[in-house]
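help with this:

***
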Amino acid sequence: MLIGELSRRTGVNSRLLRYYEAQGLLDADRGPNGYRDYTADSVAAVRKVRALLAAGLSTEVIRSVLPCVRGEGVRFAWCEEIRSLLDGELAAMDARIENLRNSRATLACYLEQP
């Protein structure tokens, strides 16, 4: 299928699909005319990428974990490296949340001043 059809099936615009390909998250063959040619599996791949992005993962991390994602949803074929990587991402996310809480508390104190 061409990029426009993949965009229609996934709801992801063509520009983002090209970006995913450039980041190594999506594969496309090239036809004789140079157009990208996606397989039916590309629809599921895009959905997985979108789900992992929604979980707050970077494209770099997604590129590492995507080969271990199985099935239609996001289910992992666990290996120690992937679990360790995701544990690290969760810890970094917790740290960002704590920093935001501290920043929020500071700003709230400023607003309480007369």
User: Anything to note?
Assistant: The mean pLDDT is 92. The two ends are 62 Å apart (CA to CA). Strands lie at 29-30, 36-37, 69-70, 75-76. Helices lie at 3-10, 14-22, 41-54, 59-65, 80-112.
